[in-house]
Design a protein that fits this description.
With 215 residues, the chain is an alpha+beta fold. The chain contains 9 helices and 4 strands. α1 (12-23) packs parallel to α3 and α4 (87-121) packs parallel to α6 (162-174). The longest helix is centred in the middle third of the chain and has 35 residues, at 87-121. The protein is globular and about 45 Å long.
Length: 215
């Protein structure tokens, strides 16, 4: 069963899918698509009408949106299972993923990571006002996630779930900021969770390399 992932190596949301694929030991073909380019590959908009990434094609079945893709992969390839069976833990997984999408991505990645890591790396100054806004919003998000995180090794319980990969891909960028790392370290559950998560082989296997602005 052929899996083709249309992706952009620096995309947080692509990395979430790649983490799940790596955890499941699934082979796939990767097709690089730069969603920031003025010239998308011919026919790509037929696959993803919004011109974003990732998009997955599996034996002719096309799917876009990260949450849909990783749930599909977990249902289709059930071992190892990455979604809790318990309804409350499953609801918590969905809630954490929703919080991450709605409230975490922008401050953690687009504000803190870009302005405190990427721009200095590229030799340009970050926007101090945007960075401060990001740090303030990130603190609120991390407080909420600290409260939601289970008193277990992983966010929803004793077993790793899709929620861990969803947040982990963003924290991997956020924690490169010294100020972001400091905020994370002040939350005991999230800090301990991050140390466990970052040690997983799938994290090293999916590292995108040097950061750039299009995160």
């Amino acid at each position: 069963m052929a899996l083709i992932l249309h992706s952009y190596r620096y995309s947080v949301y692509v990395r979430i899918v790649r983490l799940v694929l790596a955890e499941k030991g699934l082979a796939y073909e990767s097709v690089e698509v730069n969603p920031f380019s003025a010239d998308l590959p011919p026919g790509y908009l037929a696959l993803h009408p919004f011109g974003r990434v990732p998009a997955l094609v599996h034996d002719g079945f096309a799917l876009y949106e990260t949450g849909a893709i990783i749930r599909y992969l977990d249902r289709l390839f059930p071992a190892p299972a990455l979604q809790p069976v318990d309804p409350k833990r499953l609801a918590r997984m969905d809630q954490i993923m929703g919080v991450v999408d709605a409230y975490a991505y922008w401050p953690l990645v687009r504000q803190v990571f870009v302005h405190d890591v990427v721009r200095p790396h590229m030799g340009t100054a970050g926007d101090t006002a945007e960075l401060e806004k990001g740090l303030s919003a990130a603190a609120k998000v991390l407080d909420a996630l600290e409260d939601l995180a289970a008193a277990d090794p992983w966010l929803t319980g004793p077993d790793i779930s899709l929620a861990d990969f969803h947040l982990g891909a963003m924290v991997a960028y956020f924690a490169q900021s010294p100020r972001g790392a400091e905020l994370l370290a002040a939350r005991p559950r999230l800090s301990a969770w991050w140390q466990r998560f970052r040690a997983r082989p799938s994290v090293a296997a999916t590292a995108p390399g040097l950061p750039i602005t299009q995160a």
